[in-house]
Design brief:
61 strands, 25-stranded parallel sheet, Jelly Rolls
Length: 748
């Protein structure tokens, strides 16, 4: 059955607005209109005020909208119908068309069949603060092939429409999925997609889905239809799935055809309960046929399927150059983390699984905490790195499981520095096929009794690490024996609970290492193996002692952080002169500054700084920033000197929609380069700069614990061993002052 959306005929068009000859920016603002819809309204009204609103969705569908327009439905009211927009209604990234609510609470759009909201072949749309209700899955998906909110670009060429934003919505009761982002097999799709702070529940096939062509698209292809995608702070739950006629279904969040995406701070649970198919199951959060995807800081639990899958997190067929990190998976029927490469899918290569916690996954059908498999020798998964994870697996009732299962062909699969803790006779590792280049190094295998690792390798069981090492040369680095079979001394394994809030992931302290743990400083050197992790599951830097710790917890170095004395001055003679107020010496400062620029060949700004020799790691919270210009800057800076044209490396949170930027000047007087990336908005934006040798890396975050790199690391060979490190503020407007409040300055 094909589920491609078709264009719907629109009603009569409203007369076009009168064109006024004024400056372009002013013209755009004047032509944007806010329309109101209320059950007490009249469709013959103007709709342009709360006193004369429209009444029905049909009236909205009969109008044509323009960039910057808003369509607001009365909060607390329910409107029945299918809201539809086409390319004639397209907004822009700078001035999107907005669909939202007004008054008290959210409005509800109820679709008795079909889609709730359709945006067809149009970009420049924001849908926010509204509820979508379908007829309910009890009506049967065959009778309701609908999507709660559907963005679809079905162009015949590889075009990418900008700005598809969905924020603070609740979507449930639809036959296909709650939120669907669709493209064509030609590669048409969207760029700059954001789905945030939303709940997708009780939809038949999935909560959130991106796809091309059809939902059961075959054969699988990889066309990068969706670029710059962000899915964050969402909940996908109780999407039950069906039988095998829909292939894999009952998923929480399933995204495909991505090229550049982040899925973070989401919770997926209770999905797949009705999936009885034998050709594909459900997973809480996963992607396939995608490139450069980061899945991080999520909780996925209680997902299931009758026969296949039912896991927590998954990089599936055709996923390349992607990272799955800092997640908490627990109590799933299938694998906590799955790497799967079906035979017909595009290449699967270059993926990383690191610093995750899995507790009691693999409750059904013989799955493991981490499972790698499903490939054939002609299409292997390759160059996968699995390290720094903590896996706890008790024996499931009436079934079998394992810490790690590897099956099918692979090339260069590397498994390092993981804690693999099983109980009740559950195997630590089962390897059914080795392929080429497989390495297990620096892992701790523990089954509750010293020495009995219960490891199954190509049909043979090994109960001691030394016997397995001698037979296979695994757990060696060169001529050195590595790895361990010791009690990891975790705080309270097996007893972490359900969070239902991915911002609380660090509270899973049951898997921190006790100070007496032999896993501390017992791992292999990941840096020497070409890997470059920055921090563990809990946000602590790695490595902090004489070596990497094993597992998801890197025990913090007990030595005190260095103390520095800060000095304040203007750089580049900005006018008027800036001012610094010491709130708490070395920890908090209020700054005001002028200055026309930070960048180009020279700088003007206010600087609070200290001199540091060698490596360092500094972080700060920008509690507030009152800017005089959209490009005013406040953040962290490193300079080789106090001259205005000095080599430097800086990380800023700018006033323009909270974007962070990295500014780099490699040589004295050289033109500075700048990279920008979306980030937390004020207040309370966190920034961090880390130096290792001549390499500098900038990060941003929301809590001072978890970090995301702002840009690729920069190597500055001319900056020198001793540098000036500190806080920088610039107004970008000559003669005016911008003010910033910095606090929680800390050095690691």
């Amino acid at each position: 059955m094909t589920h491609k959306l078709t264009r719907q005929r629109r009603g009569a068009l409203m007369p076009p607005p009168r064109v006024i000859s004024i400056e372009p920016l002013e013209r755009r603002e004047l032509l944007s209109t806010t329309y109101y819809v209320s059950p007490s309204g009249l469709d013959k009204s103007s709709g342009t005020s709360t006193g004369s609103p429209w009444k029905t969705i049909a009236r909205v569908n009969s109008a044509t909208f323009h960039a910057g327009d808003k369509i607001l439905f009365q909060g607390g009211a329910t409107f029945t119908g299918n809201l539809t927009f086409t390319s004639a209604d397209a907004g822009t990234a700078a001035s999107p068309v907005t669909v939202s609510s007004y008054g008290n609470g959210r409005a509800t759009i109820r679709a008795t069949s079909g889609n709730g909201i359709t945006v067809l072949d149009a970009g420049g749309f924001t849908i926010s603060n509204i509820n979508l209700a379908g007829p309910g899955i009890a009506a049967g998906h065959a009778d309701n092939g609908g999507i709660g909110i559907s963005f679809l670009n079905d162009a015949a060429t590889a075009s990418h429409l900008p700005h598809a934003y969905i924020d603070h919505v609740d979507v449930g009761g639809f036959g296909l999925c709650g939120i669907g982002i669709g493209g064509s097999r030609a590669g048409a799709g969207f760029t700059d997609v954001r789905i945030t702070y939303s709940t997708a529940h009780d939809n038949w096939l999935a909560g959130i889905w991106s796809y091309v062509g059809r939902f059961d698209d075959k054969p699988p292809i990889k066309v990068s239809a969706f670029q710059n995608v962000y899915v964050g702070h969402d909940i996908a739950c109780n999407n039950p799935g069906a039988n095998s006629d829909k292939g894999f279904n009952g998923n929480g969040i399933v995204l495909s055809q991505l090229n550049g995406a982040v899925i973070e701070r989401c919770v997926a649970h209770g999905n797949g309960t009705a999936n009885t198919g034998t050709n594909g199951g459900a997973v809480g959060i996963w992607c396939y046929c995608s490139n450069n995807v980061t899945i991080q800081y999520n909780e996925s639990y209680g997902n299931t399927s009758a026969h296949l899958d039912g896991g927590g997190l998954d990089f599936d067929g055709g996923t390349t150059n992607s990272v799955l990190q800092y997640n908490y998976s627990h109590d799933n029927a299938g694998a906590g983390i799955l790497l799967a490469q079906p035979s017909l899918f595009p290449k699967f290569s270059g993926d990383v699984v690191r610093y995750n916690i899995s507790q009691d996954d693999g409750r059904k059908n013989g799955y493991a905490a981490i499972e790698v498999g499903g490939a054939i020798s002609s299409n292997p998964y390759s160059n996968a790195e699995i390290y720094g994870n903590t896996l706890y697996v008790s024996k499931p009732a009436g079934g079998s499981s394992a810490g790690i299962i590897v099956k099918g062909a692979s090339v260069n699969l590397h498994v390092r520095n993981n804690i693999i803790y099983t109980t009740g006779g559950t195997p630590t590792v089962i390897v059914n096929a080795t392929g080429s280049g497989m390495l297990f190094q620096g892992n701790d295998y523990w089954t509750g009794s010293s020495g009995a690792i219960n490891l199954r390798w190509l049909g043979k069981t090994y109960n001691t690490l030394s016997a397995w090492r001698s037979a296979t040369r695994q757990e060696t680095v060169g001529s050195k024996a590595v790895g361990a079979s010791v009690a990891p001394m975790l705080s309270d394994p097996g007893n972490a609970g359900t969070l239902n809030n991915a911002d609380n992931l660090p509270s899973v302290t049951q898997y921190t290492l006790l100070s007496s743990s032999l896993a501390i400083d017992a791992g292999v050197d990941l840096n020497a193996m070409g890997l470059s992790p920055t921090h563990d599951y809990y946000g602590d830097l790695v490595a902090q002692g004489s070596a990497f710790d094993i597992g998801a917890d890197e025990v913090a170095d007990a030595s005190p952080a260095p103390k520095y004395t800060f000095t304040s001055s203007d750089i580049g003679s900005p006018s008027p002169a800036g001012k610094t107020t010491v709130v708490t010496a070395g920890q908090a400062y209020d700054m005001s500054a002028a200055g026309t620029r930070i960048g180009g060949t020279s700088d003007q700004f206010r600087f609070v700084y200290t001199a540091i020799t060698g490596d360092f790691d500094i972080k700060v919270r920008i509690a507030a920033f009152s800017a005089t210009d959209a490009w005013a800057k406040a953040g962290l800076m490193v300079r080789s000197s106090l001259s205005d044209n000095s080599p430097m490396f800086a990380a800023f949170a700018q006033a323009s929609s909270g974007d962070d930027g990295v500014v780099t000047r490699a040589k004295p007087g050289a033109n500075a380069a700048q990279t920008t990336a979306g980030s937390p908005k004020y207040p309370n934006a966190w920034l961090r700069i880390r130096r290792v040798g001549d390499t500098f890396t900038a990060y941003y975050g929301t809590d001072g614990t978890y970090w995301t790199a702002l840009a690729s690391a920069a190597t500055l060979s001319d900056i020198g061993p001793t540098v000036y490190v500190g806080l920088a503020v610039n107004s970008r407007v000559d003669g005016k002052l911008a003010t910033a409040q910095f606090c929680d300055i800390a050095f690691a």
